[in-house]
């Protein structure tokens, strides 16, 4: 192994930069939030896009803006990623319709407020479907094409809450820890095979998007408490979504294996490493004050 390879392995950079010009990038959840900026960032670098969202109007707006700014081809798929059959159908359409796929960004995600005892099994499963099973299904469909094409990158949006477990976010943290485990195991499988397809595990801290406003609440949660919880989370979402989206694009192109976004994500990642079983006793009171 040369010195360049060694430095790359230690810093989590997986080889020469990806070129996406003329290739296809698939982005889920592209109608707003970080997904919109991820899609625009790849389009500015000349990638054709396949964009997916359940929000038809939002998706049409983003596609219009991309088409006004660039010459790339954009194909839209209006799909509810919580619907297993629709996702199976989408996976087949993406696989058959986009042979030059080089990057898959599983960005779409949802939140569900409520303690474990306040959310039903169906509510918990809905969240796992969108945040965990769908990214795995789309990876299963598109990874073989990337392997056949000889290069590519799977980019999966985990979270800071995939590094630390947060009270009132059991379903969300479960999905994001799960996705992080999938990302790391798959990345290690692929790197052991020495192929040029990599995995980027993304862990944003609080990003200024509509995720808290769009969140569902467990049916056992008191409505006043639910409103207060949403407001509390919304307050800590401060990092600009456009900046986060650009960092994700750059990490994918550099084939980085792990990306923490924001000071909060970097600091709390370090805290969890230093105090793996007691971090919440320090962090809980700080989060409470920040959300007031
Ligand atoms: N905002 C944050 O602070 C933050 C922090 C860590 C991780 N994340 C993760 O980043 C990703 C993007 O989140 P965001 O903050 O931009 O959220 P957002 O709510 O602003 O955007 C999410 C997008 O996904 C789409 N979407 C949601 N459910 C869908 C479904 N069932 N089918 C199809 N499309 C669906 C929405 O319509 C929306 O366009 C998510 O996976 C989220 O969990 C966000």
UniProtKB/TrEMBL annotation:
MF annotations from Gene Ontology: oxidoreductase activity
Entry's Gene Ontology cellular component terms: membrane
Keywords: Oxidoreductase
SUPFAM superfamilies given in the database record: NAD(P)-binding Rossmann-fold domains (SSF51735)
Domain Ketoreductase, first and last residues per copy: 23-210
One Pfam family per UniProt: adh_short
InterPro entries assigned to the protein according to its UniProt record, in alphabetical order: KR_dom, NAD(P)-bd_dom_sf, Sc_DH/Rdtase_CS, SDR_fam
Membership in a protein family: Belongs to the short-chain dehydrogenases/reductases (SDR) family.
PANTHER family xref list: DEHYDROGENASE/REDUCTASE SDR FAMILY MEMBER 7B (PTHR44196), DEHYDROGENASE_REDUCTASE SDR FAMILY MEMBER 7B (PTHR44196:SF1)
Protein name: Short-subunit dehydrogenase
């Amino acid at each position: 192994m040369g010195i360049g390879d060694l430095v790359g392995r230690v810093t989590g950079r997986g080889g020469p930069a990806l070129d996406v010009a003329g290739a296809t990038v698939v982005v889920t959840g592209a109608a707003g939030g970080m997904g919109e900026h991820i899609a625009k960032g790849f389009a500015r670098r000349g990638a054709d896009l396949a964009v997916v969202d359940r929000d038809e109007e939002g998706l049409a707006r983003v596609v219009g803006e991309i088409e006004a700014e660039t010459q790339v081809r954009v194909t839209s798929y209006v799909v509810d990623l919580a619907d297993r059959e629709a996702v199976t159908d989408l996976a087949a359409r993406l696989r058959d319709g986009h042979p030059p796929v080089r990057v898959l960004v599983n960005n779409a995600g949802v939140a569900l407020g409520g303690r474990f005892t306040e959310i039903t099994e169906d509510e918990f499963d809905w969240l796992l479907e969108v945040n965990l099973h769908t990214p795995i299904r789309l990876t299963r469909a598109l990874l073989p094409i990337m392997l056949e094409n000889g290069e590519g990158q799977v980019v999966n949006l985990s979270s800071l809450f995939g590094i630390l477990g947060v009270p009132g976010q059991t379903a969300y943290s479960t999905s994001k820890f799960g996705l992080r485990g999938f990302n790391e195991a798959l990345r290690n499988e692929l790197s052991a095979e020495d192929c040029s397809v990599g995995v980027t595990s993304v862990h944003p801290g609080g990003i200024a998007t509509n995720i808290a406003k769009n969140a569902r609440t467990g049916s056992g949660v008191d409505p006043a408490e639910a409103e207060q919880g949403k407001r509390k989370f919304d307050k800590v979402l401060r990092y600009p979504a456009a900046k986060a989206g650009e960092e994700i694009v750059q990490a994918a192109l550099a084939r980085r294996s792990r990306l923490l976004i924001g000071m909060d994500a970097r600091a709390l990642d370090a805290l969890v490493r230093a105090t793996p079983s007691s971090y919440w006793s320090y962090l809980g009171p700080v989060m409470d004050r920040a959300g007031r």
